Amino acid sequence: MPLLEVKNITKQYEKDKKVLSGISFDVNGGEFISIIGPSGAGKSTLLRCINRMVDFSSGEILFHNTDIMSLSKKDLRKYRTQIGMIFQHYNLVSRLTVIENVLHGRLGYKTTLQGIMTRFTEEEKKEAFHLLEKLGMREHAYKRCDHLSGGQKQRVGIARALIQQPKILLCDEPIASLDPNSSKVIMDHLKNISQELRITCIVNLHQVDVAKHYSERIIGLNGGQIVYDGAPQELTTTNIHQIYGSEAENLILA
Amino acid sequence: MDTVKSSVTFDIRTKPSGKIKITNWNKSKVVMTGTLLVLTLLSMYGFLTFDYKEINLIQATLDTLANLKLMFLQANLNNFTLAEAIYQIGLTVGLAFLATIIGAVISLFIALFAAKNLSPKPLANTIIIFIAFIRAVPTVLWVFIFAIAAGLGSEAAILGMLLHTVAFLVKAFAESIEELDAGVIEALRASGANWWHVVTNAVIPSTMTSLLSWTFLRFETNFTVAVAMGAVAGAGGIGFELFMASGFYFDMKEVGFITYAILLIAVMLEFMSTRLKKRYIVKS
User: What ipTM was assigned to the predicted interfaces of this complex?
Assistant: First the structure.
């Protein structure tokens, strides 16, 4: 049984302008999926439908066979704790320290009062340090986040997502603001996460060759529709042409 | 020269006289210039049509200067002692402090619901419009309105100042909160955090600096308002003494002394707020 079943979902912000139309795919545990497509193809919206930061207009998404549109407010919070998310612009609270930002990932498990008083257990704090250690950020734990470089911020973002103990990690263009070196570090970490921890990674990417190199499966979006869904080895230039709507030779693939 | 001319002539605009135009007369520039012109004409008309009541302008200027000299060069206390003066200043600062602190706490809570990134738009707009009405009425009037219930005095003054402070700070706080990066809120919401978690863990830490500087700014304003309230609303404090000295005893020297005292406090407040901000808030 797949972990996540996306069935025929449609999203429109305005009448007769569909951002997503008839999107269907299944996701298994531990898969590494890249979603590629031109800007405005609906990649970000698709990711946000999965954790219901955006409510889709029709269709259904099943997580462990539960329809996520039917979740109550409380259950939605619980559901979101199982889905980590990392962002192009990291979205950390820049005035707080690294460790405080990592622990924010535990807020979903807290009651209102615990969250307001920032009551984290010693186990949670140890886990936060452990994750930072694994991501090579241990010595920066007490630094304020606005003192970090982009690559370091993204690693804090990953730690914040991992401390949720998620089943799925949604990555919205995680390397779009990073230099090639940091990008490689981040992509290697994501790959490790999916292989070692068996956490499913769904990554929005702009770089076709990065997608080909890292993922087990590529989904190509164009105009809100899936135009390719398959293994990276089978992605032909014709497919790329379909996805980006121009000749592959004219694209900067790196 | 010829080559340059031929390549760029298509977008050079010229005046009827043939000279090259460099200003772009768009709508806002027309409105600005028009406003300035009208204001200048009105001022000229005003000065020309004043009723000067046969004042000898030179004599009047000399008298005023003499008064100013008495006030500021021979400042002195006659009707009360220095200790009393300090006590009265303390009273005025106290009025301002109470109105600001209570106001800031109330404002923070209301501002959370008035910020469009945290609260539904209809609710936020309702609050913003409502407090705009409160702000439109001057503080003194609010004090008089409360004086009907509480009687003229420090209670009415604090209530009036409090209301105006809240109306001011809610708007300022809400705008600071709205400047927060939407992505930060999204990140916490996406991890399952609820509304209060987002407020206490992301909104407050990120906006603390601007919240505090707005509060300090309002404290400085409230100090001067408290001086005025002492005079008009009988709230006591240094403002009342100023009122008595100027309007009752006609004691210019004392007016001068009190003005200096108020100035000193205002400068001290400014100095303190700058130091505090530097030391505790902008740590980076």
Answer: 0.91
Please give the single-letter amino acid code of residue A34.
Answer: S
More confident residue, A191 or B274: A191
Q: What homologous superfamily is domain A1-82+168-254 in, according to CATH?
A: P-loop containing nucleotide triphosphate hydrolases (3.40.50.300)
A104/B193 Cβ within 8 A: yes
**Which of B117, B191, B208, B282 would best serve as a mutation to test chain A binding (most A beta carbons within 10 A)?**
B191
Run of H or E including A140: none
**Confidence check: pLDDT of B283 > 60:** no
Report the interhelical angle of B82-114 vs B121-136 (nearest 10°).
150
Q: Where in chain B is the domain with CATH 1.10.3720.10?
A: 72-281
Q: Which tens digit of pLDDT belongs to each residue from A76-134?
A: 999 999 999 999 999 999 999 999 999 999 999 999 999 998 889 999 999 999 999 99
Tell the burial category of A113 from Cβ atoms under 10 Å away from its Cβ (0-12, 13-18, 19+): exposed
Nearest to A77 among B194, B206, B284 (CB): B194
What residue ranges do the domains of chain A occupy? 1-82+168-254, 90-165
CB contact under 8 A, A109 and B192: yes
* Interface contact A85-B192, CB threshold 8 A: no
pLDDT at B244 over 70: yes
Q: Most A CBs within 10 Å: which of B177, B180, B197, B206, as the mutation test of the A interface? A: B197
Which fold is adopted by the domain B72-281? MetI-like fold (1.10.3720)
| Per-residue model confidence as pLDDT tens digits over B182-241 | 999 999 999 999 999 999 999 999 998 889 889 998 999 999 999 988 888 887 888 888
Q: Does A161 sit within 8 Å of B201, measured CB to CB? A: no
Gap between the Cα atoms of B3 and A50, Å rounded = 61
Whole-number pLDDT of residue A137: 94
Chain B residues within 8 A of A96 when measuring between CB atoms: 201, 205
Which of B170, B184, B169 has its CA nearest to residue B125? B170
Check residue A249 and give its pLDDT. 63
Instruction: Report d(CA A74, CA A160) in Å as an integer.
Output: 21
